[in-house]
Amino acid sequence: MAPDVTAVNSARAPLSRFLRWDVLVGILLVVVFIGGAAGSPEFANIDNLSFALGDLGEIALIALAMTLLVVAAEVDLSVASVLGLSSALVGNLWDAGWAIETIIPLVIVVGAVCGLVNGLLVTRLGLPSLAVTIGTLALYRGLALVVLGDRAIAEFPQTYVNLAVGDVPGTPIPYPVAVFAVLAVITAVLLHATGFGRALFAIGAQVEAAHFAGIRVKRIKLILFVVSGVVAAFAGVVYTLRYGSARADNGSGLELAVIAAVLLGGVDFDGGRGTLGGVIAGVLLIGLLRNLLMLNDVSTEIQSIVTGLLLVISVITPRLVAVARQRRRVPSPVVPTPPTT
Amino acid sequence: MTGAAEATAPHGPGTGDAPPVLALAGVSKSFGAVRALREVSLELRAGEAHALAGENGAGKSTLVKTLSGVHRPDSGQVLMDGQPVEFHKPADAQRHGVAVIYQEPTMFPDLSVAENIFIGRQPRASLGRIDRGEMRARAAELFARLGVALDPEQPARGLSIADQQLVEIAKALSRDARVLIMDEPTAALSGNEVARLFTVVKALREQGCALLFISHRLDEIFELCQQVTTLRDGAWIASEPVAGLTHEALIRRMVGRDLDTLYPKLDAVAGEVALKVHRLTREGVFTDVSFEVRRGEIVALAGLVGAGRSEVARAVFGVDRWDAGWVEVNGRRLPPASPTAAMSAGVALVPEDRRQQGLVMDQSIERNIGLTGLKGLRRGPVISRAAERDRARDWAIRLQLKFNRLSDAVNVLSGGNQQKVVLAKWLSTRPQVLIIDEPTRGIDVGTKAEVHRVLSELASDGMAVLMISSELPEVLGMADRVLVMQEGRLVADIPRADATEESVMTAATGRAS
């Protein structure tokens, strides 16, 4: 008598396994690389690629923390401002004669506090992170200006500058990129192979079900915001040393490139979906495109337009694909609403 | 096939000659592989109240949604005055004079009662301004016709559910509705409110309205209706006059077998107290709730929708806070508002809303089952996929889950199988206290029996089970004791031997049912 329910199953077309978004981005990356190499002789040499990678360092680092947040259906738009605040503090304190060894941990702590403020506003007051971090985006940048004004502090000791711009001995890999590689592996394991990662996906996909399953949703979100602040502050140190210049407006607008990379990498802005591999491909893709545009003397305005377009396209395309798929399925089998009375 | 019966209706002037106002002829509707309606026919006549009977999941709501233009039938016809019509959307049905009154109407809380009635069709004065005076007068006139005292100027916020239903009925009247469909209107009403509703509805019936009435309370069907159509598992079973039918005969039509075999509660010896709830209070939600559940016992928590049953369960499990009182599991107090602590103390909660609370719908069967026991799946710092899969497979087999691959998302499963995944997810934590909220809501009769069998076995193995259910047969068939809540308070503790539909409903509503 019971309705036949065994057959309710979408036999997934084998092709759609290859059509995963993050795989597509990986393929696109290869295409851009080959195209770039063919079109511009300066592109595919080791020095340029090493520079391109190094130039990506801050975006790549921040994108790791951002991925965790977006998977959990939150976002942190204040990262570039935290980077700026961190840079301003480094400049101010260095100017005041502090040692770099003291400055760095202190700046990291300030980053943690910035993240904590974001996290508390989101988890304790239940405010949407989009709104909260737009507010703190302005707030932290404002603080950076208070700390350093419009001064630019330069002349950092060469040993530290070398750490930011130099390569790991015997390789063409800049130190920040090496740090990124290590953190990326850790993040990938964390996201895809640990209970913490499982919890993040559950929170992002269905926060109520996660709460009912005993997952400490608020605590985890708070941790993510703190991590995001810490990483942004660390990226601020790297940025400052790499350019050899501490300014309050360092890195402004960087959050857009980070979010573009994360979404381009196939992380669903609504949370619950995404892979770190996709994000890394997204970061590299954005980096290569920026590098190519730069090599071809395209103005920064156009570069900004390209970043913006990528952001919009990466949000729109998966939706369009989903809608198209939905249309193809005749009587939508996905949601067999049980008849309830 | 109906209507020809001579004995039909004391109130049925329309029976016989004129075609039915609204009818379904051989309507079928499927959702994926779930066949919600199979060749169902139904005839609603002017001046007649028609009851729709059937268990949860029998297809009643789908039928209502088909009549009201929410769903379109896969095959078969909807007929108005004998003519086929197609309702593409609810507005089409409304235009044809079909109105639905839901159990809990949705209103615009900040608008006045009159504005709610005339929303989208406000009477106009010059320059297209809304004529408030006219609107108020017409609302007052409608209430006078219904014989109820409601202020048209009052904001809808704060109206009782009963008053909201009356506003909806007034709205239906203002649209000259000829067919009024009422989907469990009395589930959340008190005795006086039901009486008032029935007075209004009987008056409408006598004015020539055709009524379709859905209720789980059989007495109400016998009081109000002339005809009854019974559905079971989506299939049409019978349409017949109410007169001459007994409660038992109607239940047999609905269930299709004897109740005793449907609810196979094994006898179990109640052991020591596993869950003790003492004077638990959450302000404005429930007050001073105390009870115990022993090992081996299935205790049902019964009551009307909104009596505070699920809220008590949520507080005990720590999803919500409580303001006063305490909860003890195996003699140890639980900290408030911590599901994590409740879980490590051995409590599991199978929540009411499996799509929002029970499952992560987009994720796979194995991930959903693993989510409650991530620590146990760890090998070193990482989760072992093999362990995750093994656990899921174990439980899928034990609960006879029907699935293709464990990596399939749970949203492709039927409601009954989804419920089994939720059960697996919680049983895999090896709980000592299982709280299960509406264990069989919206699942088919076959799976239902399996869920009941599982619960019964768990209790026999010494688990303490607290079951919340709005289905009286389930409560009566499964429970060793029945606790009854009314308006946030525990009002009765009835042992199995004394628990009857009457005793439970009397306690739940504070009236003789």
- Overall number of structural domains of chain B: 3
Proper CATH architecture of the largest domain in chain B:
3-Layer(aba) Sandwich
State the major sheet of chain A: none
Task: Provide the CATH top-level class of the largest domain in chain B.
Answer: Alpha Beta
Share in β-strands of chain B: 15-25%
Mean pLDDT rating of chain A: 87
Helical proportion of chain A, percent range: over 70%
Mean pLDDT of chain B: 86
Which parts of chain B are unreliable, with pLDDT below 50 for 5 consecutive residues or more?
A: 1-15
| Rg from alpha-carbon coordinates of chain A | 22 Å
- The CATH topology of the largest domain in chain B is Rossmann fold
Strand order of the largest sheet of chain B: 6-7-8-3-9-10
Termini of chain B, distance in Å? Answer: 32 Å
Molecular structure report:
- In chain A, helix 3 (46-71) packs across helix 13, helix 5 runs antiparallel to helix 6 (129-148) and helix 8 (175-193) packs across helix 9.
- Chain A is mainly alpha-helical and 341 residues long.
- The two termini of chain A are 19 Å apart.
- Chain A has a domain at 48-250.
- Helix content of chain A is 71%, strand content 0%.
- Chain A contains 14 helices and no strands.
- By secondary structure, chain B is α/β, with parallel strands linked by helices.
- Chain B folds into three domains: 48-70 and 87-107 and 159-254, Rossmann fold (3-Layer(aba) Sandwich), CATH 3.40.50; 257-346 and 432-513, Rossmann fold (3-Layer(aba) Sandwich), CATH 3.40.50; 358-430, no CATH class.
- In chain B, a hairpin with a 2-residue loop joins strand 1 (22-31) and strand 2 (34-44).
- Chains A and B meet through helix 9 and helix 10 of A and strand 2, helix 1, helix 11, helix 12 and strand 18 of B.
